[in-house]
Amino acid sequence: MSIKKAAIFFLIAISILFISSSGTNPFPKNKTAEPFDVVVPSDNCTVIMVGKDASTDGSVMATHTADCGICDWTWRHVPAAEHQPGEMRKIYHISQMRSWPPKEGLKWDLIKKDFTGLEIPQPSHTYGYVHGVFGYMNDQQLAFGESTVGNQRKIGNTTSTPKMDITMLTLLAMERCKTAREAIQLMGSLAEKYGYGFVDGGEMLAVADAKEVWDFEIMPVGPLWTPDSGKPGAVWCAARIPDDQVSVCPNESRIGEIDLNNTDLFMASSNVISCAVDNGLFDPKAGLPFNWKKAYSPSQGSAATSGGRARLWRFFDLVAPSQKFKAETPNMDLPFSMKPDKKISVQDVMTMTRDKCQGTPLDPVRGIRGGPYANPNYYAGTRTIGTRAAEYTTVTQCRSWLPAPVGGIVWLAWGAQDTSCYMPFYASVTAVPKSFNIGDHWELNRGSARWAFDYVDFHAQVAYADAIEDIRKAQREWEIGAMTRIADVDKKAAELYAKSPAKAIELLTATSLDNANKVVAAWWDLGDKLLVKYNHFGFYDLEKRSRARGRQASQIWQKAVRMMDIYIEAEK
Q1: Where is 66: in which H helix or E strand?
Q2: Beta-carbon neighbour count of residue 371 at 10 Å?
């Protein structure tokens, strides 16, 4: 028997083992090509949105997974400021993807080299905020999450004519807006006036405040647009998630049919329909209602036909299992939003950000997918909500019953969600830890907070099934510990704020930074312990100073190896 034949038999054997151990795969391979000329994003940036009446505590929540794997991950705080009449704000081209070697400087200083030539008037006051790749929350508890959704290729605009990109728009909204509606109108009007595109195409933002959360989507209008055309330089649409419902954006346009007469639920640019008609993306004579996603960013497929489409179905499977949504349902046909079976807590949202389709046919450890130690990071066929390439993940909470500087919280987790830890930062913090400002993928830096979490993640991959339990124990200690302290901190800060806002902000900043610094230190220590404990695939008991064998490799995997050995011997 030739080696080639042996390999073929091995693959057959693996398939048999997979089917016999996990049940027949009910999902056929997707053989149909995308019928549209659409720029399809390959990102894994999942945005979860929760209305105030769908949450357990009345908070409005939104998430963002900054999925990239090569991007700048640094965070910084921009203080509130007063501005003189005539003072101008420079506009920069800010690429989500671009980074510089640390020796050249920090990204947020170096972007000033990419000045667009445009300056716009400053308002008399700009709000303080925190940001990473995008703006995330300001001291008025306006909050964002982001997901690239793609667009019809013909409306893309990669020329330098547009001056606005999605990052710049979020920073301007952070500086100038208190509410979600204000932010949407500001970003939309700036993009229409000065053009949107260059480094960005179709993008989605979750735009939240203490009362509501919106899905805001924006597209370029084609490479021939100029400011002198008299036409809007962007096309955009926004749909509000009803207060008692939840929604998700998994790098797919989510807004369907719109009713612009219903201003409580919809907003859009003046060219929302005419731009589609002009570009042959919508025919009003066809007798069909206008559908935003079908016109500007259509996509096909389902969780069943493509693991890359799994996140949308999985979200509804998690929040409304009673609905029994089928994995075969085309993603374009799944609802925009849904009332969850039960109200959702911030801890529930964190758990969802770590989801890996466990227990479903798309489970990345099903059969032999997870290798000998049930590692969900080996198999790339399913794009899960939890992703191994995350720069960081945010969960924002906006809470109407507290003063804005106290009510807003950004929970930040560095790196892969399953091995990281969420840390709370109040909306009014006047600083972030210095370790948040530095570091990149190509240089290990023990002064960078992010590397502490990558250090743990790296050591977890060796014996994942065992190591993840150690990590979950640490997550429970630090995340639940922070959650239980929030109520007390809220109370003290709110009482202090009524007497002295400055002292309340000092308290919230000190509390946020102290917790973050302790978590970073704890994760460096956890990484050391994982290295020692699972060294050489053993199990070193640190307390008893004994060594035992670690968890046995999965029986399915061992059978596959033995069968390969049989074929190799047959070849001899």
Answers
A1: strand 60-67
A2: 18
Tokens of 229: 């055309």
Closest CA to 5 of 477, 564, 540: 564
Residues 322, 288: Cα–Cα separation, whole Å: 31
**Contact predicate 361/350, CB 8 Å:** no
Query: What is the distance between the alpha carbons of residues 188 and 193, in angstroms, rounded to a whole number?
Result: 9
- Tens of pLDDT along the chain (572 residues)? 455 554 544 454 444 444 334 433 444 333 333 456 887 787 889 999 999 999 999 999 999 999 988 999 999 999 999 999 999 999 999 999 999 999 999 999 999 999 999 999 999 999 999 999 999 999 999 999 999 999 999 999 999 999 999 999 999 999 999 999 999 999 999 999 999 999 999 999 999 999 999 999 999 999 999 999 999 999 999 999 999 999 999 999 999 999 999 999 999 999 999 999 999 999 999 999 999 999 999 988 999 988 889 999 999 999 999 999 999 999 999 999 999 999 999 999 999 999 999 999 999 999 889 988 899 999 988 899 999 999 999 999 999 999 999 999 999 999 999 999 999 999 999 999 999 999 999 999 999 999 999 999 999 998 999 999 999 999 999 999 999 999 999 999 999 999 999 999 999 999 999 999 999 999 999 999 999 999 988 888 888 888 876 666 677 777 877 887 887 877 76
In eight-state DSSP terms, residue 395 is E
- Residue 361: both structure tokens together: 């046919």
Pick the closest to residue 395 from 424, 363, 432 (CA basis). 424
DSSP annotation of 75: -
Task: Please say whether the beta carbons of 155 and 457 come within 8 A.
Answer: no
3-state secondary structure labels for all residues of 239-269: EECCCCCEEEEECCCCCCECCCCCCCCEEEC
Q: Give CA–CA dist 261/559, Å, rounded.
A: 63
Question: Is 41:219 a contact under the CB 8 Å cutoff?
Answer: no
CA 403 vs CA 137, 176, 406: distances in Å: 14, 18, 5
Which whole-number Å values give the CA distances from 397 to 48, 206, 252, 465, 516, in the listed order?
A: 12, 12, 23, 32, 17
- Distance CA(456)–CA(304), nearest Å, equals 33
3-state secondary structure of 334: coil
Nearest to residue 440, comparing CAs of 95, 45, 43, 100? 100
Radius of gyration (Cα) for the chain, nearest Å? Answer: 25
Question: What backbone phi and psi angles, to 5 degrees, belong to 516?
Answer: -60, -45
d(CA 381, CA 367): 13
Strand-pairing partners, residue 206, are: 145, 215
